[in-house]
Amino acid sequence: MTPGKRLLDLALVVVLALILAVPFVVLVGVLLIAQGRPIFYVAERMKGVDRPFRLWKLRTMRPAGPNEGGVSGGDKSDRVGRIGRLLRKTRADEIPQLWNVLRGDMSFVGPRPPLRSYVERFPDLYARILRNRPGITGLASLHIHGFEERVLTPCTTAEETDAVYVRRCIPRKARLDLIYQRHQSVCFDLCLIRDTAKRVIFRRK
Predict the structure, then answer these.
(1) From start to end of the chain, where are the E strands?
(2) Torsions phi, psi for 142 (to 5 deg)
(3) 26: β partners
(4) What is the pLDDT of residues 57-85, one digit of tens each?
(5) Angle between helices 82-90 and 3-35 (to 10 degrees)
(6) In this structure, what DSSP letter does residue 129 have?
(7) Torsion sign over Cα 191, 196, 201, 205
(8) Are 183 and 105 in contact (CB under 8 A)?
(9) Strand partners, 42
(10) From CA 35, how far away is CA 37, in angstroms rounded?
(11) What pTM value is reported for the model?
């Protein structure tokens, strides 16, 4: 990560922390009343082939068994309530990732942090992708999110979700992540952050 990119990350963390502090406390209170504990969803993700970290999000699904993991598809849709859907649509569930950015586990812009299982299955691919710090948003996040939702929603089992994700989503995301890697700059990051904000505000897929 370049010094300029890290400086941008830290500046945005400070600004957003000041703006979102009160609304976030109110949101946590609402979630505590509406769905109880745990408020946060903490899961392992990878920032390098052998470098795991703990990703923080607001919980959007009912808790499941200890062995349930993997990508979210139609097989998990019944566990997402109305509040969870709203959090996901507005990306408010990702506010706690400011902590991950502050710690240096993530950047604001970069590839979405993958599950260990996919990194272990495709180590050469992710060794290339994760030369960039994982991000809250990114080129692939902006252009693949709607497609990913469309192809994963019809999946009815975890096995089907995994197969579709591997076959149809990972190659597309990887291509865009590597394009971003070749053209990464602070200016490009600012453009992607702007486009992400516009998408959230205007609720576009």
Answers:
(1) 40-48, 51-58, 107-109, 135-137
(2) -70, -40
(3) none
(4) 999 988 765 545 678 777 787 788 888 88
(5) 160
(6) H
(7) positive
(8) no
(9) 56
(10) 7
(11) 0.89
